[in-house]
Amino acid sequence: MKEYKKLIFIIVVALFFSLFNLARAEVLINEVQVKPTGESFIELYNFGSSQDLTNWTIKRRTASGSEYSLVSASRLKDKSISANSYFLLVNENYIGEITPDTMWAKSYDLANDNTILLYNENENLISKISWGGVVDCTSSCPANPPEGQSIQKTSNGSWVSATPTPGAVNSSLSSDSNNSNNTSSTSVTTEIKTKTSEIPKIKTKILAKNFSFVGIPMIFEANATGYSNEILSYGRYFWNFGDGDSLEVKMSENKKFTHTYFYGGEYDVTLEYYQNYYGDVPDASDKMIVKVVEASIFISRVGEEKDFFIELSNNTNYDADISNWILSSNGKSFTIPRNTTIGAKRKMIISPKITGFSILDRDTLKLLTSQWETVFDYGASVIKFTPKKVASATIAQTPSLILPLSKGETSKVDGVNTDVQVSAENLPASAISSDVVKDNPIRTYFLSFILTIFIGASAGVVYFIRQKKVVSSAGDDFKILDE
């Protein structure tokens, strides 16, 4: 009986840990910043050996229990986190100073009263963190963090709000380590201030996504801040896009612009800021890697006359932001609203009640980028076939039907006028290849050329023979007279 109870206990424990899938987790959520939006991030930390994050995902759960994808598997494809290292995930609108490892779509973001859940490639829950008024915490959840602060994991596994440290040791862990070594509160405060404070300097930042599609313009923007974190508006930028192209921009003309990559690959984009327009040494610089993949975003299907819907498909392994893209036809256009994303290998169907298009727009329907660059021409992709009537062309191939005609008569076979001229394009292949004698212009020219040479040669021979007969010999000029 005792062995029986022991067995039940082991089974219950095994089921408990398999249910939560946390027993062997080595990659954990370590820090989360919610506000402000441009600085929100999620930081992972790997306590074990190097871990491939391909097919891992991160989801966000609201206070009501609704769950949404935050970081799709495509964003973590071919990504990994080294042993005892950090992995930083940010919104595409991130303006922080630390270079992220990957980004999530700008249309998604963190909010108060949320839960973040980390799943591995087998969709097992690896780690989670909740804050604010949610019911996911085993005990009380940490409060919603104040703007400018993050929720950080402490050495005892609890969560506290502290100064953000993306990609670095948590402020809370620094404090715990100092306290465990009996360091005075003064030295703790000094270390935290030394870590979080920085020497004032000029900074510049690339504002762009970290991936794009081949042939589709990518939006770039930059900013520069001074010693007091003020926005600078003088000097110049120098861009190098890593594909052989570059651009120099005056700060007075600084605005969003686009650059197009024509081949897939990874490109190192660098930005240099010169406070002195004529200076040679940059005062600040930034760098990012842009991954460019083949574009496969197209109009995959349209409806019929009664319901002319338009279906858009994303056949890539990446989420496609099609904000402000345009559907155009017959002088009409429909602009896709901002924050519109088609997930990897997914489709979107738009009703004609929204676009205003009809079946009459099908043959000239196009999908354009926000810069009016054509991405897909649906009209050109549709193969049109219109069968043509054959006007009894086979009559010409039926000798038994040829009848002698008197002058001015027109033959008719089965009521068909055989004098009708049928265009070759309306004839079947059998009629075109029938035994009808056709004029060959090359053959005609060749025969004419040979005939001309023959006639010329003949004329020359005749002339030569006649000349030979006319010319007299020397003895023919006189004759001897007998006296």
Return Rg in Å: 41 Å
CATH class annotation of the largest domain: Mainly Beta
Contiguous uncertain segments of 5+ residues: 16-25, 182-197, 384-438
Q: Quote the beta fraction.
A: 25-35%
Q: What is the end-to-end distance?
A: 178 Å
> How many runs of DSSP E, i.e. beta strands?
31
What is the arithmetic mean of pLDDT? 77
CATH overall fold name of the largest domain = Immunoglobulin-like
Task: For the largest sheet, list the strands in their spatial order.
Answer: 8-7-2-1-11-12
Q: Please state the structural category.
A: alpha+beta
Total domain modules: 3
3D shape: elongated
Continuous helix count:
7
Task: Give the full name of the CATH homologous superfamily of the largest domain.
Answer: Lamin Tail domain
Corresponding CATH architecture of the largest domain:
Sandwich
Largest beta-sheet details: 6 strands, mixed
Domain PKD: 237-271
Pfam families: LTD, PKD_4
Protein name: PKD domain-containing protein
Biased composition (Low complexity): 170-190
Please describe what this structure looks like.
The protein is of the alpha+beta class. It is built from 7 helices and 31 strands. The longest helix is centred in the last third of the chain and has 30 residues, at 441-470. The model is unreliable at 16-25, 182-197 and 384-438 (pLDDT under 50).
